Amino acid sequence: MQVTSVEAFRVELPLVHEFETSSHRKSSIEHILVRIADADGVVGWGEIASPSDPFYSSETVDTCWLILRRHLAPALLVHTWEEPGDASRAWARIRGHNFAKAGVDMACWDLATRASGVSLASALDGERTSAVAGVSLGIEPTVDDLLTEVSKYVDEGYRRVKLKIAPAWDEEPSRAVRAAFPDLMLQVDANGAYRYDDADHLRSLLALDAYGLLLVEQPFAPGALAAHARLQARLQTPVCLDESIDDLDQLDSAIELGAGKILNIKTSRMGGLTVARRAHDAATAAGWQVWSGGMHEFGIGRAANVALASLPGFSLPGDLSGSDKYYARDIVDPPIRAHDGEVPVPYDRPGLGHEVDEEFVRSLASETFVLTA
Ligand code: OSB
Ligand code: MG
């Protein structure tokens, strides 16, 4: 395959409900949408789901825009590839910038699978017909507000809820949600807000064993693999890594150290579907469980996450809610929806399985560029 044009759009959508994590609060999300085409006019779409601020990772929308325009798009335009899994060879020399890479990699998978008329999920060797969905709930002003949010999604059929936690917002919300929903699959995500060497932090984390959680996600800073291993040795609840794992070498180190038992696989954080699929293979071979995480994706990135979650090892519910949890109007048709807490995998439609509303994307774009071969 040979990509002959790369077009990019900066698009911002308002969130239906403000989202707060241990680091900050947001009311809208800006992502970069990537449209590639080949000489036959086949089109593929990808989404660069980097946050605007460098609080989750060092990337931002601005750095992604720059790397895409200056490095990734030019490299792709001179690269010939057979399989979508080989497209990423175009940028093998470029270190880091995984969110930017993930959007281009996704567009290549979409283009190749549309060209051959197969679904992305079947091209990835997916098997699951639906992905069990879970919602990720931000830090709320009060525990009562949180319980209202949890009730809303439980009533909609979601069977798993993830709570964002931070020091001083951990035991109380966990206890309250567990008391109100004894059978709910419940897990927490600290986004690295704790330190192993802080006695209060450690006490709060160890206390979480009382609430029957599926997992505790990323308690410590990304580089703190040894601290995660020390915590896992003392905690019954499985430790899950998110920000710590950007590539397969870090995953190898985490497995070797026993820094957890579960991996949150995000297409964006791992630099694309190609690496994410390998992470699934390596983690499950080592006896870790995996699940599909999200970055508040619009419909393109969300569809890619659903396709990835069709792989057999995705045994835990993902952050795969319908796009209506976040956005009143999405940029794809049909929109992505959960039914009884599950998102169906569209094996019967080519590529991502959802058509991009190009007119809507163009009308929303605050900035665009096109590069051609
Ligand atoms: O840590 O999983 C995270 C959103 C933005 C940045 C980091 C995270 C998240 C989420 C949202 O938890 C999950 C979703 O997209 O539903
Ligand atoms: Mg996380």
Report on the structure:
The chain is α/β, with parallel strands linked by helices and 373 residues long. The chain has 2 domains: 3-117 and 357-372, Enolase-like, domain 1 (2-Layer Sandwich); 122-344, TIM Barrel, CATH 3.20.20. Helix content is 33%, strand content 22%. The chain has helices spanning 61-77, 98-116, 120-123, 143-156, 171-180, 199-207, 225-234, 248-257, 273-285, 299-308, 358-364; strands at residues 3-20, 25-38, 43-48, 130-132, 134-137, 160-164, 185-189, 216-217, 239-241, 262-265, 289-292, 332-333, 342-344, 355-356, 367-372. The strands form 4 sheets. Strands 5-6-7-8-9-10-11 form a 7-stranded parallel sheet. Strand 10, helix 9 (273-285) and strand 11 (289-292) form a beta-alpha-beta unit. Helix 4 (143-156) packs across helix 5 (171-180). The model has no long low-confidence stretch (mean pLDDT 97). Bound molecules: 2-succinylbenzoate and magnesium ion. It is an enzyme of class 4 (lyase). Keywords: Lyase, Magnesium, Metal-binding. Its cofactor is a divalent metal cation.
